[in-house]
């Protein structure tokens, strides 16, 4: 029957206990809680598509357990590694104000947790409420190590929309029959593209459209005449997804844990890393039917992809005092999803997303800009590293990806530790280019030379710098949509368009009043997106494409935000149990 809005679900096999502390506000006392969770990273046999395999999980659960907290709560999450893989966990979308040590990307804010070791992620949720998620942040382990992170409003604070009867997380994933670690290892060794997934999943289940999966279907059980809040999370590794429920309308009310101006739609577009909250108003009476909820990819690149559809079933509870009909005898309706390459729908959907921008939830868009950045994002190549052999990338090369033609080389130690201890020499250089080194016609005929440069270069920002960043897709090895995720910040999406960004004309069309605020945004295929944010969070913050293969190929970089002058503007010191490399 879904998940109660306030209580943690009963199936959480976590050690969860709380200490009440009192925070006094001028109006009334609000209770904030310290919530303790325990994540045991362990192997678990799981069967999907008629094949059983051992996967890395949290507490033996797939998907992993849900974390439930309130705005203002402190979270202490102890992660204990019982597997042979190194592990780290990222709390996707949490601002981590001054607590960058808890952000989680391996070799950026921490060294990974090694076998037999543990680490306590300690952070407080400040000024955020809504649907976020957590996932492993090393190699491709997030294919099975992920789960919802649900932040409820403070006690007594209402939603800015109709209070739902129940809330239900729906998390999209990708399933490989093979070991995803072997898939990416082979791709990086040969220089070619990775083998695509065998199925998409809804809450870990592939559903009846796949072989051998009729019983492995997520069922969304609802009552007639009620309003449900669906917390949609795209945890797929490499695919943006269209999602729809047959014969039902969805009302979008939140994106990336920020309320938006509500609008109705039959289909949602959601990129890897993004979350979307929608209201589902059920039929006023029992409809004598069941309905598919389905998702399939939105595809813009030239590479191979998993061209399949995941389905769950929307099931209405039978009315009381009626003879129970067999569900198999009820007609089953299927939704009509957009075409796989429907960029027109994708553009129109994203254009509808607007911040509430009211007195309770203002959109604090930076109106002045201290630093302008222009980053190209796209694919490229590296020379074949296999002596006397041909690699499987374009023309015998190895696939790569880059920002401003720099493919990011991960260091062997954590960037944040190097920055904090002022020992960056030999780890990184602070000279990431603010613009492409060699300008070209970014969306026109691609240049003959597709080689990238490789390095560990960072951007350094003074505290409270207001930043405008334009990210431009390129046509090198094919134009493609890139969902870019920035750690440590939300940003405002002030503009987007197709073709090459025009510095003289396009800024005049920016929306500086009510742009959507989020943490992950799609750079349009063959186009550009402009974002603004305030660098008010000291630390080292990763930014990368959330298509995991592109991150593996180097489409990533990091920002250093220096401490401010006041005590509450400085990065806190590292915890004693911070993992060592």
TrEMBL record:
CDD domains: CuRO_1_LCC_plant, CuRO_2_LCC_plant, CuRO_3_LCC_plant. Its EC number is 1.10.3.2. Residues 1-31 form the signal peptide. The keyword Signal applies. Its cofactor is Cu cation. Residues 42-154, 167-317, 433-563 form the Plastocyanin-like domain. Keywords: Apoplast, Copper, Glycoprotein, Lignin degradation, Metal-binding, Oxidoreductase, Repeat, Secreted, Signal. Binds 4 Cu cations per monomer. The keyword Glycoprotein applies. Pfam families: Cu-oxidase, Cu-oxidase_2, Cu-oxidase_3. Belongs to the multicopper oxidase family. Lignin degradation and detoxification of lignin-derived products. This is Laccase. It comes from Prunus persica (Peach).
């Amino acid at each position: 029957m879904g998940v109660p809005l306030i209580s943690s679900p009963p199936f959480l096999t976590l050690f969860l206990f709380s200490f009440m502390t009192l925070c006094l506000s001028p109006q009334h006392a609000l209770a904030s809680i310290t919530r303790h969770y325990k994540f045991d990273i362990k192997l678990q046999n799981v069967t999907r598509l008629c094949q059983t395999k051992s996967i890395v999980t949290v507490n033996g659960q797939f998907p992993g357990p849900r974390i439930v907290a309130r705005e203002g709560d402190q979270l202490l999450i102890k992660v204990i590694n019982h597997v042979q893989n190194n592990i780290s966990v990222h709390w996707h979308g949490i601002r981590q104000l001054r607590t960058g040590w808890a952000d989680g990307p391996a070799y950026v804010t921490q060294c990974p947790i090694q076998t037999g070791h543990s680490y306590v992620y300690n952070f407080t949720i400040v000024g955020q409420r809504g649907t976020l998620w957590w996932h492993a942040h090393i190699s491709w382990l997030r294919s099975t190590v992920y789960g919802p992170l649900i932040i409820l409003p403070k006690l007594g604070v209402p939603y800015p929309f109709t209070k739902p009867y129940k809330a239900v997380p729906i998390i999209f994933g990708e399933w490989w029959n093979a070991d995803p670690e072997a898939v990416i290892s082979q791709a990086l060794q040969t220089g070619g593209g990775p083998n695509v997934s065998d199925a998409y999943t809804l809450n870990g289940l592939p559903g009846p459209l796949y072989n051998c999966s009729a019983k492995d279907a997520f069922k969304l059980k609802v009552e007639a005449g009620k309003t449900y809040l669906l917390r949609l999370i795209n945890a797929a590794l490499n695919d943006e997804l269209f999602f729809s429920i047959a014969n039902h309308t969805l009302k979008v009310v939140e994106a990336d844990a920020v309320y938006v101006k509500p609008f109705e739609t039959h289909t949602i577009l959601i990129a890897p890393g993004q979350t979307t909250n929608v209201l589902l108003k059920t039929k006023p009476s029992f409809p004598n039917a069941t309905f598919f909820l389905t998702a399939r990819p939105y595809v813009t690149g030239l590479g191979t992809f998993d061209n399949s559809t995941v389905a769950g079933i929307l099931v209405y509870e039978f009315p009381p005092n009626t003879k129970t009909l067999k569900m198999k005898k009820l007609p089953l309706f299927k939704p009509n999803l957009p075409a796989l390459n429907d960029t027109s729908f994708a553009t129109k959907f994203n254009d509808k997303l607007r911040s509430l921008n009211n007195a309770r939830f203002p959109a604090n868009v930076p109106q002045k800009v201290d630093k302008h950045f222009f980053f190209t994002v796209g694919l490229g190549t590296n020379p074949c590293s296999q002596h006397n052999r041909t690699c499987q990338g374009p023309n015998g090369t190895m696939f790569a990806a880059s920002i401003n033609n720099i493919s990011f080389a991960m260091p062997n130690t954590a960037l944040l530790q190097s920055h904090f201890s002022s020992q960056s020499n030999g780890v990184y250089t602070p000279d990431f280019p603010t613009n492409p080194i060699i300008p070209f016609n970014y969306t026109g005929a691609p240049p003959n030379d597709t080689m990238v440069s490789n390095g560990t270069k960072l951007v350094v920002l003074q505290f409270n710098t207001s930043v405008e960043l334009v990210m431009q897709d390129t046509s090198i090895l094919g134009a493609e949509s890139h969902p870019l995720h920035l750690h440590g910040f939300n940003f405002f999406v002030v503009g987007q368009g197709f073709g090459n960004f025009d510095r003289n004309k396009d800024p005049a069309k920016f929306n500086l009043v009510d742009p959507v605020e989020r943490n992950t945004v799609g750079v349009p295929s063959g186009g550009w997106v402009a974002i603004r944010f305030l660098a008010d969070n000291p630390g080292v913050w990763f930014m990368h494409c959330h298509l995991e293969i592109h991150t593996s190929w180097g489409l990533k970089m990091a920002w250093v935000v220096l401490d401010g002058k006041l005590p509450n503007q400085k990065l806190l010191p590292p915890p004693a149990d911070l993992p060592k490399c």
